[in-house]
Design a protein that fits this description.
CATH class: Alpha Beta
Distance between the termini: 54 Å
Number of domains: 1
Shape: globular
Number of strands: 9
Strand order of the largest sheet: 1-6-5-4-7-9-8
Low-confidence stretches: 1-11
Length: about 270
Amino acid sequence: MSGCGIHPHEFGGQQMSQEKKQSDFMKPGIGNKFQEETKYTTERIGGYTLDSNTFPDPFKNYESPLAVIPLPQPELSGDPDLWKALYRRRSRRVYRNAESLQLGVLSTLLWATQGITEKYGDTLFRSAPSAGGLFPVETYLSVRLVEGLEGGIYHFRPGRFDLEFLKKGDFSRNLAGAALDQGIVASAQATFIWSAVLPRSKWKYRQRAYRYIYLDAGHICQNLYLAGEALGLGVCAIGAFFDDDVNAIVGLDGFDETVIYMATVGKISEGK
């Protein structure tokens, strides 16, 4: 032991120092409690039955949107190289903010994130997986500059493949402020805003639903990244925002439905 040049008291001092350094960020908190209390064990799992009559509506519709905009069919021709898209995938933050995004391109991005890919009886399969096939994540758009769309807040309906126009105006700067002043939100042609309709997932998974909801959102966002790369667009995921400020912009209650994730989409210079 003495040959290593470290005296016991020195090693102990380093260990204490390391423990002290770790103590600030390793102290138990609500995150630890959540992780522990949602673990599956033989004692915790089950204990309830599922009643299909109480399952929340799998699709969200607004009673009186400003308008309903049918989306053009997604452009899926060609043979984009998945391996190239995976290799090139980056968070891209510099956009040509004066140029418009084509509606057809936006339609393709929406299909890639949550589009219906197959129908089997009453079951609708989508382009991204969801725990239990419950699909609790809803997609909203803050549109700044898209051909054929007024600036405003829109809601995507994958079952009907259209957009519900909810709020008129340019919300990009307000949304950027809610996203901790991240300027990319103000310069992006559109920003995807994903919410979770919590009852859809909690109906089956109770408190563990919170784990799955964020996994679902991650699958959806990665699809957006890969579709963006295939189309030569820039995408940047955003997890830092004032939750209730974004909820207020979209018009959500923050309890039964709350914003969980966002991503900007913009035109980028060639090779950027």
